[in-house]
């Protein structure tokens, strides 16, 4: 009898341990809620009301916000991105879009965010994107990467069209990151670049991997004093004669009414992912949250 009771006790104890293990496994396998970052659960929540264009390049060239549509890809392919797949550039690749919505055309302030993975190049400047202008060689807005002599730095040049009268040509009003302000350690790995222009304060900011770059006043307030307006600020953006949009090339790659590209005008050869345009200048917290969320594939 004692032996029988002992066997029962052992059997009961074994069953209890097994059930306890099952409970433990179930608890371990239950989804763990994401911790909010900067008050957001995912990247699309950041300044959601101000996101006017978004390209994730998950096997498509479409803008999920439909701010820029009618895309035609030339030699477009994809590779692994920071989040899903990414646009893979080459010496002959670009994407041309035929339709640009008023939400993009009429931007007064702007933030452009993108992830890029690229290598050093020579021979000219690679265009990341461009908002063309029919009668202006430089277009309305663009970002490009100049060739450089260092494998750890990037010479980024941004051009933004200003609110001007027809008699004044502000072509060539570049923000240039070179010399002491060159962007360092940019090649060979994924980097998030975010730049913004605040039309209210006429100030420019740039961030790399969620961190704001400290810029001299000559750059951050590049547009704070307009000599043609008695030293007043340049003010809000004023894109005009907008026709089409291009990723990975220049407006000159689109044909008429633009001429053929100059020899230094190079297609972007790196990877690009999560390209976004906002109609406001994002705050430091918003940029930091966007970086962390996208890096976390959220």
From TrEMBL:
Q: Which InterPro entries does the entry mention? A: ConA-like_dom_sf (IPR013320)
Quick check: keyword DNA repair in the entry?
no
Q: Where is the signal peptide?
A: 1-19
Kindly give the SUPFAM superfamilies that the UniProt entry links to this protein.
Concanavalin A-like lectins/glucanases (SSF49899)
Gene3D superfamilies under this entry?
2.60.120.200
Q: Specify the species.
A: Flavobacterium calami
Q: Which UniProt keywords apply?
A: Signal
Q: What is the name attached to this protein's record?
A: LamG-like jellyroll fold domain-containing protein
């Amino acid at each position: 009898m004692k032996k029988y009771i002992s066997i029962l006790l052992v059997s009961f104890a074994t069953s209890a341990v097994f059930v306890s293990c099952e409970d433990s496994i179930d608890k371990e396998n239950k989804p763990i809620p994401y911790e909010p970052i900067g008050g957001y659960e995912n990247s699309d929540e950041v300044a959601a009301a101000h996101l006017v264009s978004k390209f994730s390049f998950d096997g498509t060239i479409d803008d999920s916000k439909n701010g820029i549509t009618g895309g035609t890809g030339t030699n477009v392919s994809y590779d692994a991105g920071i989040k899903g797949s990414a646009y893979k550039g080459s010496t002959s690749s670009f994407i041309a879009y035929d339709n640009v919505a008023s939400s993009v055309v009429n931007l007064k302030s702007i933030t452009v965010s993108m992830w890029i993975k690229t290598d050093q190049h020579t021979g000219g400047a690679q265009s990341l994107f461009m908002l063309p202008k029919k009668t202006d060689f430089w277009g309305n807005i663009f970002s490009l990467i100049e060739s450089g002599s260092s494998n750890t730095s990037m010479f980024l040049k941004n051009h933004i069209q200003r609110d001007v009268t027809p008699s004044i040509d502000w072509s060539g009003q570049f923000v240039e990151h070179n010399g002491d302000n060159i962007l360092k350690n940019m090649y060979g790995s994924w980097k998030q670049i975010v730049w913004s222009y605040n039309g209210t304060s006429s100030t420019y900011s740039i961030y790399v991997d969620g961190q704001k770059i400290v810029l001299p006043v000559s750059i951050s307030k590049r547009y704070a004093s307009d000599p043609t307006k008695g030293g007043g600020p340049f003010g809000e953006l004023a894109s005009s004669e907008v026709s089409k949009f291009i990723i990975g090339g220049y407006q000159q790659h689109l044909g008429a009414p633009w001429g053929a590209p100059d020899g230094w005008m190079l297609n972007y050869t790196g990877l690009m992912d999560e390209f976004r345009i906002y109609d406001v200048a994002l705050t430091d917290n918003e940029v930091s949250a966007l970086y962390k969320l996208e890096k976390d594939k959220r």
